[in-house]
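Input structure tokens:
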């Protein structure tokens, strides 16, 4: 099974192509049911991504989103496409990031009329914060493929139904306006994707839409003016920049939390050193009243101890009994820490992550030739981080472990 950190979904071919232009090293992956995915990497990064065309409508979008989740186990789903504006102040080409997705067709018919029974999905807080940061800094604009001024990025609810709305006075338009008057845009797929993600352990899903029409009867005109490809080009640029940040967020190590006893959390190699669980001469297990040290950031750990039983390891050597895959997971955390501490610049970090991912994937198969491929990737990684002592030491240790297994 090929891993993908991010899955991009689109409804239209032009949307698919807009995202595809930001991916590289693409190869076809065919699902046994016939669905065709393209798997590659986000350009200029090591982030693996999959792309799939789901077609129009919430139902097919839900089915293929579920299929993509099962196939790739991604860290997030990103739906990219076009939408119709529901507010007069929204300009053609604006990019909408959904804070909520309304499945607006739910309702109950009673004697006094149709009452709304919507379902609502909210963007995860972390993804929302990243998206707003990208909008504030304008960093996403570096990925733009269009000329002219960048559009405004707006945050607000999106309504997703089963009807192409192209009127402001129809019964359908009045229904949406009456019950979903805070929605910024309207489209036909996001509710299905959001539901599929919700049913898969609340997998993060982000919806990014470019405004290609005003949902007011002028859609034919705006389509002739080629607003669809223009709008989705900027939506894709923002979505890809956001996806890269989402993938990087997954690799950042979490800050250790203190235990309920008031003692510091047990340190690990990710903080710069580690110790095994000490055993007393009587074999009763870990000593009470021990001293534990935690280093964060660029700080260094010294040794503070009384009587020591068992082993203490300082540095980034491989731990006996730990598998190569586990050591690679530790290396990934160390690499992210070095990037957070500005000891590795962005291009080097992306390249290093790419080599690390190649090694991880090669080791999954367990074959001798795959271990050889993992060794080659790690040697390239060692060349990238050779001037960073702790990382170079850890890479050398993992290499020694893998090559020892190979023999």
């Amino acid at each position: 099974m090929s891993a993908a950190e991010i899955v991009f979904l689109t409804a239209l071919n032009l949307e698919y192509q807009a995202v595809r232009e930001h991916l590289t090293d693409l190869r076809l992956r065919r699902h046994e049911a016939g669905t065709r995915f393209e798997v590659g990497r986000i350009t200029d990064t090591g982030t693996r991504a999959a792309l799939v065309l789901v077609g129009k409508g919430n139902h097919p979008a839900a089915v293929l989103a579920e299929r993509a989740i099962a196939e790739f186990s991604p860290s997030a789903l990103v739906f990219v496409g076009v939408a119709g504006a529901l507010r007069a102040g929204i300009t053609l080409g604006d990019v909408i990031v959904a804070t909520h997705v309304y499945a607006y067709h739910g309702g109950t018919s009673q004697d006094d009329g149709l009452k709304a029974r919507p379902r609502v999905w909210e963007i995860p807080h972390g993804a929302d914060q990243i998206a707003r940061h990208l909008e504030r800094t304008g960093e996403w604009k570096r990925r733009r493929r269009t000329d002219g001024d960048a559009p405004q990025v707006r945050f607000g609810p999106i309504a997703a139904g089963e009807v192409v709305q192209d009127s402001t006075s129809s019964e359908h338009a009045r229904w949406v306006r009456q019950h979903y008057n805070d929605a910024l845009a309207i489209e036909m797929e996001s509710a299905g994707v959001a539901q599929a993600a919700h049913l898969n352990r609340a997998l993060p899903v982000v919806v990014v839409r470019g405004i290609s029409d005003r949902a007011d009867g002028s859609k034919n005109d705006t389509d002739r003016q080629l607003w669809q490809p223009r709008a989705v080009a900027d939506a894709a640029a923002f979505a890809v920049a956001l996806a890269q940040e989402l993938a990087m967020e997954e690799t950042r190590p979490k800050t250790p939390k203190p235990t309920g006893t008031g003692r510091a959390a047990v340190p690990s190699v990710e903080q710069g050193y580690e110790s095994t669980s000490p055993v007393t001469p009587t074999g009763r297990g870990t000593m009470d009243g021990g001293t534990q040290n935690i280093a964060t950031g660029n700080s260094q750990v010294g040794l503070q101890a009384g009587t020591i039983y068992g082993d203490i390891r300082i540095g980034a050597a491989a731990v006996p009994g730990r598998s190569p895959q586990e050591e690679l997971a530790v290396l990934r955390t160390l690499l992210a820490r070095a990037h957070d501490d500005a000891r590795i610049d962005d291009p080097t970090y992306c390249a290093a992550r790419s080599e690390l991912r190649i090694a991880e994937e090669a080791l999954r198969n367990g074959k001798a030739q795959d271990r050889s491929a993992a060794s080659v990737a790690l040697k390239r990684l060692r060349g990238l981080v050779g001037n960073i002592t702790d990382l170079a030491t850890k890479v050398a240790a993992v290499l020694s472990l893998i090559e020892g297994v190979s023999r």
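Residues 6-251 form a domain with the Rossmann fold fold (CATH 3.40.50.1580). The chain has two domains: 6-251, 324-406.
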